[in-house]
Design brief:
The structure is a single chain. By secondary structure, this protein is α/β, with parallel strands linked by helices. The protein folds into two domains: 6-23 and 247-443, UDP-n-acetylglucosamine1-carboxyvinyl-transferase, Chain (Alpha-beta prism); 26-230, Enolpyruvate transferase domain (UDP-n-acetylglucosamine1-carboxyvinyl-transferase, Chain, Alpha-beta prism). Helix content is 30%, strand content 19%. It has twelve helices and 21 strands. A hairpin with a 2-residue loop joins strand 11 and strand 12 (227-230). It is globular, with a radius of gyration of 22 Å. It starts with 5 loop residues before the first strand and ends with a helix.
Length: 445
């Protein structure tokens, strides 16, 4: 069923119980789609994410000439027809919405193409998201990229002629996706590429990208200090032709937090604690601070139960910042201040996540100290009847959706409403449906 424009969150009146099936990782699905398009044989993704972001990526690859067939019910995506890519004699228009991964990956992919003209644009907010570091690096490697609006931002027009090898510097401080994009297309260049990192980069997503490239047949890039060297001329190739996508570690953060909010426990099959994604650090952080029971380091099935402690947390979220909103939203339920640092770069994501989170917590009656790079949240009694603005940002909707499961009045009365809950379609289309199913499992005798 379509979600209403505003969704009152029904609290859990009993401790949560049940099982949660997570969507596939957005980060891994979009990277795998690009790498599959660069392979020399058909590739099938299993366990893939079906959401606005991945649909945009699939549509773009189709427009570029690749054959992309998907079955949402089976969570599979098949990519073939690689020989037909980049063959259009007419300019190709690509729309990326507000999908940062698709935007950066497609920009690099089109710049590395041997021929063709590609025009890439998104929604107005996408035109504010950082692209300059990637554009500058690709231009240094010979790409003809024209910013048809403000310099360094979308919309772009790319006149493809391939990339040359050599040395290049990139500033990916505002988004590690820019470095990941460059790394994935580097093997297509005419010669080896030596990438110097002009500034510090959040490492987990870059390491994930390099490991995924290795899964698709690339030699491991030689990385030492701020230098990464990528060999050219080695074709992408996936042994066996099937790529299983891990469950999304960022999406898991909401269900790791839920037992703390409601009591009880959940089972999460396929939780990728030892997988490629850096955002599993959120679960480890919660377990280390006793908000949830210790995680099982030996298996992929996690049994999440409320832990023995409620103290506030001080932590640097720079390396797993997609999950900071989950902690910030439930911080009013902790016993003492919570301080979240390392999040300045999130001001340039779907929205200014630092300012937006501070604004919504203050509406809820919390004392919040905001700096450029941090939020400090001092719990105060929660206000009822608040409508949470989501800023078209899925992570606001889901994070505060978890807070709303707290039975503030002790009688199951909704006290918090999410504006535009449908924005979850970006990465987790059935998020609120899954919450409802858990309420059903919890209420059964």
């Amino acid at each position: 069923m379509p979600l209403p424009a505003q969704l009152p969150i029904i609290p859990f009146v009993q401790p949560v119980r049940g099982e949660v099936t997570l969507p596939g990782s957005k980060s891994l699905t979009n990277r795998a789609l690009l790498l599959a398009a660069l392979c020399d044989a058909p590739v099938t993704l299993t366990g893939a994410l079906f959401s606005e972001d991945t649909e945009l990526m699939m549509s773009a690859l189709t427009a570029l000439g690749f054959d992309v067939k998907s079955e949402a019910g089976a969570r599979t995506i098949a990519v073939s027809g690689q020989d037909n890519g980049f063959k259009s004699d007419s300019p190709v228009d690509l729309f990326v919405g507000l999908a940062g991964t698709a935007a950066r990956f497609l920009t690099a992919l089109c710049a590395a193409a041997p021929r063709g003209v590609y025009r890439i644009d998104g929604v107005p907010q996408m035109r504010k998201r950082p692209m300059k570091g990637l554009i500058d690096a690709l231009r240094a490697l010979g790409a003809d990229i024209r910013c048809t609006g403000a310099e360094g931002f979308f919309p772009l027009e790319i006149h493809a002629r391939g990339l040359r090898g050599g040395a290049v510097s990139i500033d990916a401080s505002e988004s590690s996706q820019m470095l990941s994009a460059l790394l994935m297309v580097a093997p297509l260049a005419a010669g080896d590429i030596a990438i110097t990192l002009a500034t510090k980069v959040r490492a987990p997503f870059v390491v994930m990208t390099m490991k995924q490239m290795a899964q698709f047949g690339q030699p491991a890039p030689a990385a030492e200090g701020s230098l990464i060297e990528v060999r050219a001329g080695v074709p992408y190739r996936l042994a066996g032709g099937t790529y299983p996508v891990e469950a999304d570690a960022s999406a898991a953060s909401y269900y790791l937090a839920l037992p703390f909010v409601t009591g009880g426990g959940l089972t999460i099959p396929g939780y990728p604690l030892n997988g490629l994604q850096g955002d599993v650090r959120f679960g480890r952080l919660f377990a280390e601070h006793g908000l949830i029971a210790p995680l099982d380091e030996t298996g992929s099935v996690q049994h999440i139960a409320k832990g023995p402690h409620r103290a506030g947390i001080t932590a640097n979220f720079r390396e797993f910042s997609d999950t900071f909103l989950t902690l910030a939203a439930i911080a009013p339920l902790l016993d003492g201040p919570t301080k979240i640092t390392g999040i300045a770069h999130t001001r340039k994501q779907e929205t200014d996540r630092v300012a937006g989170m501070a604004r919504e917590l203050i509406k809820l009656g919390q004392h919040v100290i905001e700096t450029e790079d941090s939020l400090e949240i001092h719990p105060r009694p929660l206000k009822s009847g608040v409508v949470i603005e989501t800023y078209h940002d899925h992570r606001f909707a889901m994070s505060f959706g978890i807070l709303g499961c707290h039975d503030l009045h002790g009688d199951g009365t909704p006290w918090l409403t999410i504006d535009n809950p449908a924005c979850c379609a970006k990465t987790f289309p059935n998020f609120f449906e899954l919450l409802d199913s858990l309420r059903g499992q919890t209420s059964r005798p």
